[in-house]
Amino acid sequence: MIAIIDYDAGNIKSVEKAVQYLGCDSRITRDADEILGADHVILPGVGAFGDCMHRLEGYGLIDVIGKVCDEGIPFLGICLGLQLLFEESEESPGVKGLGILKGKIRRLPGEGGLKVPNIGWNSLSIRGGRLFEGIEDGSFVYFVHSYYLDADDKDIVKATIDYGVRVDAAVEAGNVFACQFHPEKSSSDGLSILENFINVR
Length: 201
Prior knowledge:
Layout: E1 2-5, H1 12-21, E2 26-29, H2 32-36, E3 40-43, H3 49-58, H4 61-70, E4 75-78, H5 80-84, E5 88-89, E6 103-107, E7 118-123, E8 125-126, E9 140-145, E10 147-151, E11 157-162, E12 166-173, E13 176-179, H6 187-198
Parallel strand pairs: 1-2, 1-3, 3-4, 4-13, 5-6
Antiparallel strand pairs: 6-10, 7-9, 8-11, 11-12, 12-13
């Protein structure tokens, strides 16, 4: 069973539909026992960094997510779910992230006529990683974001895009995976990325 963490953030239902399309049992839940008993856990999200951290705290999910990662259960953060894994965000000064991975979330500069938020399809520069097995370098995936990851450890970064600045678009660290883009909205390649995650053991 795949647990999709419910903390009142946007985009949860579309992730559920994509997982079900791939033939997998899934459950939208905030129940700690269900999450810790799952085969895989997904943290989706669209919203503001600070608000979502407060909701995770209010639902008692911060420790649960920490245990998932500590116990080696495959974990995938999507969009805001990637950002929350890190230490802090320029979107919400003074609010601590989960701190499971090291790095900061910065605002896209929007230089050279590039619009913020970045909404649309961008070409990935892929640097390996289990999420991208069978995915061609240069494949296009769908983004909606105004903030981007600047990871401390560039070795965990498995895909980037250029949007006036280098955006660390996907990471892998042990059992923890995350992507700034939306695989559930990224056509066949996105579904293949989700399937690769589901096949992680």
